[in-house]
């Protein structure tokens, strides 16, 4: 950390800052410039947690120079993490596709979708049993019944299954059924929930919050990892901006940024990012070309009758076509895409 | 709701849309223009929840014309709501100030602050016992011990107390101590938590999410109210934008917008909005002049040693001075400010 | 400036950085920490303009510690600037109101408005003769004819006049008529135009760009001032965010931030900030309470027939009422408001 | 256009609205719902420009149902536009690369870069002679001297050349030298400048404004096209958001959105979008995979000595490597990439 002093800071101000830091057991380095004086802080800055340096007289601002996340940080980890979910691996050479309906609506709808996405090349079935909805009057999900259908779909197809959890109670139930727990965008900073999934040994798909910075997102991963569960996969799903032509703005740059800052795998969800079915294939290809380790795509057998997010769901034929285009694209950039026939 | 048809929609497309709507038990009105045809939908649109009209062939887009929240909506409520918290009323003529430390750190710190803010004119003591923090390595709060200190401070000073709850477990504990439950910005769409506080009969302070629209915020209030607890007070605390000169951007317009759309009271938190102590008095006055029903302000006896958010906390002297300026300001716009000596 | 080295930077990397800086005639200070090394740069950093330090091997990032604007900077200027426009002063004790129609439409419309705003207490008449419009098919302004009407309105009422200029040609014409030149939000980084108004000796009202940071805004002021014209008044008019309940989001915090960073006066335009007439009075009062030096408000004799921005214009009666409320508000915070009868 | 009436609008309010519309020579359709009445407006809505419908008593809001741009609109144009620049075509099957330095610094720097980018596969040389810079103290460009070097580089290499113009004077000079005029992000709503390039017959590269919506961007294209010059190519270069890990946020969704709304070609500039050299290749591939018609990439022979935007420039080797990866990627998605050896 660097302490930048005000241009009118006195010698006494500077001495006080140095003293305050050193009393916490840290070392300082002084740089006196013509306009400004800077105090470098050397050592473990968590020792400073008892004082607010920026409130000492003469202090202009503090500039952090190291990230606050450790376990998720690439600097302290050799190589990239590969997370095993069911029989597939995320973060390795293969592009992994998670597909399925936004919400589980019935056993028939789910099984029909599961067979279709498996045939196209998906390896993980997604399906929401606990749905966070903006309005309390919208469909809220089938809850445990939905999880049971998901488990049945796994039996029938061999696909691994991922489901969102929205409360500690939902975690307790879901761990009995699923291969991967999903933390949705709205809960990315529900720290109690992050700690709870961190206590399980089930892989976690951590969606980026609607207006979370990449730094906050990696700190959310840190919450899970610091409880012992290091099997975290990140999912970029669009951020909120002023543009209204799409539901959210897919931050495609998050792919190379995460690859440079963290060892964790990252996948992309073009369905929630745009909210518009017609734009999904274009963005799915962009994500793979950018270096994402996988995709999460909404597929519904009859999008015009979906109870949730129909406008952004592909039908099985469109999804099959997309996968047939993704396979050669993955190969030309040196990745594999095994599922598609 | 209005269905706008594509300019190349066929007669058959239009017939299908009309038919689909009428099969749900609703009435339609057709407007055929030179360029475009519009289908007006008349009746309770929740009956349409089983179909996705925007996916029918020929449909360009749907335009909602009514809000999805009902209980929080000014249209369906006569007059403004006044919420009683302890002995004070929020939403009436009086400006109500909630003040205190970001986090409860010790009994001494809390009591010292409580006496100071009471003297200056605050009527409600704030203090965090459960702290949502970006990094898992930051101070997380004293939990139930903190709530006990808050209750003691109430005994000593007569101030009502408000505390944030971050989980269902925290709600269960907090209801034994507090006069008002606070839902923080990060949990504004933690729908399980909203429902839980909606089942209590304790007033709720609902902070706006970091990137929540006013519509989403009122829908979050609707979650609480639809469980039976209509004692909701809204709190604007800054939204996330590209500007970095302040921690967040105080959306002062939210005050007149909420007053035009809802009957619920609204207060403003200039401390979290700016993150900078020096800007707090200016924004506190702006909020009162704009028509806010109250303020939430962080006060700490020794901000340079605060464990959380020190840089934005006022010391007791600054807070006293601010209140002495707010009193005549409140009066000149026709409100009262009773506490200040 | 501070150069933060990567945690894996070698001794040679560090030596190279130090050498590169010193070859530019600057001095360095080294701080070697357990995790990271920092190089402080001392002296005039414009000497570094020939090298890109952040591209040297081993460099993590550069952290600027001083602002790039000098003439607009409070640090290098004693006291606050007071800008004289016609007979009134902006930045002194008095709150100055600029009011008038968005666009000059006819002589009658303008004169009627001018008399009305003068009576209510405005000291400067605003009126657009050159209108920047999103669509090329919208009304573009009366150009020089509009300026002539403005000058006539000044003769009749004694009000000073301010008009927007959108091109160098418009500046050349406008200087013959107006007391103050306005640079609109869309042209805040039209640097040729900034330089051109900087060559005149007429006061400039510089509106903040739709998504300009405060730092960029002050740099835009610097462009004008560096050409010799230091008579710059800043105008906050709302920034672009994700919220759609208002046309823009008024960044009320800009008032105390500018007051802390610059000596230039700042006024607020609540009409463009919200785009909704009903919200204007609330925000006008908030701006004065926050410490703004004045307001710019759209007034039209018949808003429902305005050719531009009618929905946000007040009619003369509403404006009169607002001014009668602003007068005691200004006085209670220690300012004066002289015009209102 | 649709007029939504307030739920408490009277019969008289509705009659007045209908009458006002019909007096402008338009037709109306009334839809009376249980909660709300809607008035559909049929015919050319520019006839309504003399009245502000939303200010008539009882009106809740206006909902536009058609776009304000016509010439740039896909609805009124058969097929996609192909724009010829020098000997290459943008918007056809081939991916076109524009590359070169941010700023022209010297003849040597430019020629070295021109040969390098030609060898790698670029078809158009970019190079700034007029530089819009945030601070007036930063390097502002070589102006006409820079244009001459650009023309020399064209002679030597056969590459077409594109240069930014920042004022009407710059347009007058540039038309004598360049094959394509560039309008930069900061000038996207400099309407005088748009009209001026619209009067030339030289193709225009129109960059998206820092916080422009796609609708505003297409309206800016409309300004150029409505003056007679329909040779417009759009360039997505990142928008401003709260995320600071990259300089801007590349809105990759703009590619499919523009393809669905307009017939104009779209290219992507990953250099300005991220501001970080290491992220450029990932985003360049993403853009091509998403369906962009080309790329604009900054290349500098010695990025660590560039006078402008060095940190985001690729060196010639990195650029050659990127092009060698883009070629098979383009082919696998059915496009061609001819230049690369």
What is the fold's blueprint, element by element?
4 copies of one chain form a homotetramer.
Chain A: E1 2-5, H1 11-23, E2 27-32, E3 37-42, E4 59-63, E5 83-85, E6 88-90, E7 96-100, H2 107-120, E8 124-126, H3 144-157, E9 160-164, H4 168-174, E10 180-183, H5 191-198, E11 204-207, H6 214-225, E12 232-236, H7 254-261, E13 266-268, H8 270-274, H9 280-290, E14 294-298, H10 316-332
CATH superfamily of the largest domain in chain A: Aldolase class I
Counting DSSP H or I runs of 4 or more residues, the number of helices of chain A is 10
Distance between the termini of chain A: 54 Å
Average the pLDDT over all residues of chain A and give the rounded result: 92
Please name the CATH topology of the largest domain in chain A: TIM Barrel
Q: Spatial order of the strands in the main sheet of chain A?
A: 7-8-9-10-11-12-13-14
Say how many strands of chain A there are.
14
- Content of β-strand of chain A: 15-25%
Query: Which blocks of ≥5 consecutive residues of chain A have pLDDT under 50?
Result: none
Top CATH class of the largest domain in chain A: Alpha Beta
Largest sheet of chain A: 8 strands, parallel, barrel
> What would you call the structural class of chain A?
alpha/beta
Shape of chain A: elongated
Q: From the coordinates shown, what is the CATH architecture of the largest domain in chain A? A: Alpha-Beta Barrel
Percent helix range of chain A: 25-40%
In terms of quaternary structure, the protein is: homotetramer
Q: Number of folding domains of chain A?
A: 2
SSE string of chain A = EHEEEEEEHEHEHEHEHEHEHHEH
Alpha carbon gyration radius of chain A:
23 Å
Largest interface: C-D, 47 and 46 residues
EC number (chains A, B, C, D): 2.5.1.54
Protein name (chains A, B, C, D): 3-deoxy-7-phosphoheptulonate synthase
Pfam families (chains A, B, C, D): DAHP_snth_FXD, DAHP_synth_1
GO molecular function, one term (chains A, B, C, D): 3-deoxy-7-phosphoheptulonate synthase activity
């Amino acid at each position: 950390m660097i302490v930048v002093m005000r241009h009118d800071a006195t010698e006494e101000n500077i001495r006080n800052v140095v003293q305050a830091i050193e009393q916490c057991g840290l070392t300082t380095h002084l740089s006196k410039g013509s306009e400004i004086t800077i105090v470098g802080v050397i050592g473990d800055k968590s020792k400073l947690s008892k004082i607010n340096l920026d409130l000492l007289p003469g202090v202009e601002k503090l500039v952090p120079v190291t990230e606050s996340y450790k376990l998720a940080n690439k600097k302290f980890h050799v190589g990239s993490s590969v997370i095993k979910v069911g029989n597939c691996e995320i973060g390795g050479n293969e592009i992994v596709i998670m597909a399925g309906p936004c919400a589980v609506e019935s056993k028939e709808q789910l099984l029909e979708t599961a067979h279709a996405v498996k045939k196209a090349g998906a390896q993980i079935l997604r399906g929401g049993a606990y749905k966070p909805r903006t309005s309390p009057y919208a469909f809220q999900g089938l809850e445990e019944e939905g999880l049971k259908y998901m488990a049945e779909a796994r039996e029938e197809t061999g696909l691994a299954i991922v489901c969102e959890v929205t409360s500690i109670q939902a975690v307790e139930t879901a761990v009995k059924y699923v291969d991967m727990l999903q933390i949705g965008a709205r809960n990315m900073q529900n720290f109690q929930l992050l700690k709870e999934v961190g206590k399980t040994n089930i892989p976690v798909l951590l969606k980026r919050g609607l207006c979370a910075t990449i730094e906050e997102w990696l700190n959310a991963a840190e919450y899970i990892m610091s409880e012992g569960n290091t099997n975290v996969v990140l999912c970029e799903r669009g951020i909120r901006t002023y543009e209204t032509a799409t539901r959210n703005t897919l931050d495609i740059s998050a792919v190379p940024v995460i690859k440079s800052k963290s060892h964790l795998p990252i996948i992309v969800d073009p369905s929630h990012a745009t909210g518009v079915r017609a734009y999904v294939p274009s963005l799915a290809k962009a994500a793979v070309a950018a270096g994402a380790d996988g995709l999460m795509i909404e597929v519904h057998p009859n999008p015009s009758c979906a109870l949730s997010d129909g406008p952004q769901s592909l039908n099985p034929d469109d999804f099959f076509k997309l996968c047939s285009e993704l396979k050669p694209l993955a190969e030309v950039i040196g990745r594999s895409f095994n599922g598609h026939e």
